[in-house]
Amino acid sequence: MNTHNAPAPRLAADIPARLQACGIRATAQRLQIAELLLATPQHLSAEQIAETLRGRGVEVSKATVYNTLNLFAARGLIRQLAVDDTRSWFDSNVQPHYHFHDESTGALTDVALPEVQFSRLPAVPAGMEVASLDLVIRLRPARLTPGS
Q1: Does residue 41 register a pLDDT over 70?
Q2: How many whole angstroms separate alpha carbon 122 and alpha carbon 120?
Q3: By CB atoms within 10 Å of each CB, which of 2, 20, 32, 53 scores lowest?
Q4: Contact 15/39 with Cβ under 8 angstroms?
Q5: Neighbouring C-alpha atoms within 13 Å toward the C-beta of 56
Q6: Cα–Cα distance between 36 and 39 in angstroms, integer?
Q7: Going edge to edge, which strands form the sheet with 79-82?
Q8: What is the CA radius of gyration of the chain?
């Protein structure tokens, strides 16, 4: 995971205030999920979060994890990413950035905005404006060419 241009990790003590600032009631399970995901800039799936919490002895259902992550994303605390057809990823870095996606491992890596340049975007329909731009650069191991 690349933390290029990512905000500094937050202390666990900051988590209840961050939830409150987003209008989220800080229940015990929400705090545990937030502390795990917001500890460092990272990309995790709901399954990874549930598995990690269970490994720590926390009893949490997959439904609770999904509901909590969807709430966090709706309130702007995290970003939900749909990178492939198999799962959603939840990104603790809400600053504008793009992603590399390693198709062989599933890993996501942040790409800072200045590292990408667009020369032109299509005209936006009348009455609309660009709210955001998502870019996922899909990676795979380089294929060897004959004679290499």
Answers
A1: yes
A2: 7
A3: 20
A4: no
A5: 13
A6: 6
A7: 43-45, 88-91, 79-82
A8: 18
Residue range 86-110, pLDDT digits in tens = 788 999 999 999 999 999 888 899 9
Query: Are residues 36 and 52 in contact, defined by beta-carbon separation less than 8 angstroms?
Result: yes
**Higher pLDDT residue, 141 or 7?**
141
Are residues 31 and 16 in contact, defined by beta-carbon separation less than 8 angstroms? yes
User: Average of pLDDT values for 33-40?
Assistant: 93
Q: Which position has the token pair 């202390």?
A: 11
Amino acid, single-letter form, for residue 76? G
Contact call for residues 80 and 73 (beta carbons, < 8 A): yes
On average, the pLDDT of the chain sits at 88
CA angle 87, 9, 99 (to 5 degrees): 40
> Per CATH, which fold does 12-91 belong to?
Arc Repressor Mutant, subunit A (1.10.10)
> Would you state the structure tokens that stand for residue 99, as one six-digit string?
């992603």
**Distance of alpha carbon 134 from alpha carbon 81, whole angstroms:** 9
Q: Is 124 left (phi over 0), alpha (psi -120 to 50) or beta?
A: beta
**CA of residue 15 relative to chain centroid, distance:** 17
